[in-house]
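Aim 2 progress update. The chain analyzed this quarter is reproduced below.
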Amino acid sequence: MNGNNLKGEIPDLSALELLETLDFSHNNLSGSIPSSLATLKNLKALHMNQNNLIAEIPDLSALELLETLDFSHNSLSGSIPNTFAPLKNLKVLYMNGNNLIGEIPDLSTLELLETLDFSHNSLSGSIPNTFAPLKNLKVLYMNENNLIGEIPDLSTLELLETLDFSHNSLSGPIPNTFASLKNLKVLYMNGNNINGEIPDLNALELLETLDFSHNNLSGSIPSSLSAVKNLKVLYMNENNLKGEIPDLSALELLETLDLSDNHLSGPIPSSLATFKNLKALYLQNNNLSGTIPTALLQRRQTSSFTFEFSGNPSLCDSISSDCSHPPTPVQRPRGSKSKLSTGITVGISVAGILLLGVAIGFVTYFIYKKKKSSVHNGAIHEGLSQVELAGSECSGTVIMGEPIPAELHVRRFSYKEVEVATNNFTTILGQGGFGPVYKGWLDDGRVVAIKVSSNISLQGSKEFLNEIDLLSRVHHKCLVRLLGYCNEEKQVLVYEFMSEGSLFEHLHGPHSNDNSVLPWVTRLRIILDAAHGLSYLHEGCSPQIIHRDIKSSNILLNDQMEAKISDFGISRNQPINGTGAPPTAVMGTLGYVDPAYIKSLNMTERIDVYSFGVLLFEIVSGRRPIFESLSSKQSISIIDWAKSSFLRDNIDDIIDPSLHGQYNVESVRKVVHVAVSCVEMPSFKRPRMSQVYQDLKEALEVETSELQGSY
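Predicted structure tokens:
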């Protein structure tokens, strides 16, 4: 009965005494889980995931034959029952994505358990020592909870392949006993308060993904990591690591290396340029010195490699700089080790977010964790009054909490000039998160888009000017450029004019008739531009800019059909229901918003990645994010619909019929595959936008290589 859009409560099924498998997953069922399920004593598999079920989990201890139990992605509350202990045949247990509280119960009797997922809840207390008997355990997810204390000894779990304790409040050191987990392939410990030095992990020869980022680790990066030869992804960013980068040349399979935001010193090893599979290298905001290896700079010019090194004042770019005069060091803050508490998280965006604490006038470097904070009661770290803007086109220093700069980097307009430019606000182009948008003409003849603040979005003059100063330094060919502002009767933003309107208009509006259907190759170039711009906001600017309202109407097109992202980087307090709200409210547009974000208010760049995945499905199919079924007249999510066809390999069912077969199916398949990865649950499985950009470039290359041939 799964995936049928069923509604209502689950009926009494106690008469089905011989039932072995019950699957009500991926519906819209509501109400509580009936206690009568406990009478189905032959049940081996019970799937209730992806519904709207509420209340506490009933006593199911009588289901002694049960092997698979999945209650994930509902709204279940209360604690995890102790009555799971008799389920000694249980192999798979999913409780993730609910509202469960309390401590983790004793599960030591479940000796056949292979997969255990309690992630994305509000569990508290410490991780129990009672996992030791679970010697068949292969997958263990405890991420995104409120767990505290030290990590217990898990050395008996020798079959463990995936271990995720990320985004909790765990403390203490990384246990040396991890070295016993020789089958481990994926290890996530990021987003905690773990301290001490990194232990020797050279015995983990099968390890492919290692994430120790956003902790308080100290000491140096151990050279023994070079023995972990299957490593593909290594995140050590946002710690207190020091010393030189060791020789990691033996890691021939490495694809992503992030050592940013530490205290690393010394030169960049030239061996990093020899990694044939390396796609992304992040070294920004350290104390590295010397000349950047020429091979890395040359490789950076290619489409398949991302290399970030800004925020290292003593580094020298030998290609474009005079290496005899290194730049003067710039004071900068280290990144926060955790998400800010919901009470002080401040979203800054026009339909999106610039991480700016408007209440205290200070740009927050990262917003990372909803339930804990390294900033208490609105205080900021002393001595951190400057935030360096990383990236070649996002450079300079913005003073926050200090007097407003006398000269901003864009033109200041009087309100009278705005009235003249808009002919008294005659031609309205649309409505954005900041307010209405008007067409205007400057005195030099340029056509511009002029955004006038609504009462909902209005903010303090000082904060507004600070944001203008920041935005004026953010330049990228795939971002709509700010040209000027006004701060008199109303707050006004003046942007470059995008003559071809929005992507939404071309897919669904006045430009979407058969005579002007966007060709597939044009759609590819548009989403590639959008991915490029979003990748820059996430990874090329400091503080990082999270948009929070990526959608087709915020992708604007110029007369060359080149795409640019709009509505980023200015505060607004308008949630998805369109009413005024505190900054902890969910921002975005229905259909595009990450469900995990709605539930948790955990703001990371992954919420933009999710929205971008929806955008990809939209541009492939020509359908809106939520559309009406012609047969049932019910609303359907484009994600559920497209993923269902993709899993059956029915790509032709997804593609926009108005394209009339004028596309390379492998190119489309690549884009859909990227879209599926962008909307993955849990969110940590989603790629970075820099990776999305590279994957979409490959899709475009597949398409353009056959443009001269026939489809």
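Confidence is low (pLDDT under 50) at residues 324-406, 571-583. The domain at 411-496 is CATH 3.30.200.20 (Phosphorylase Kinase; domain 1). These observations will guide the mutagenesis experiments scheduled for the next reporting period.
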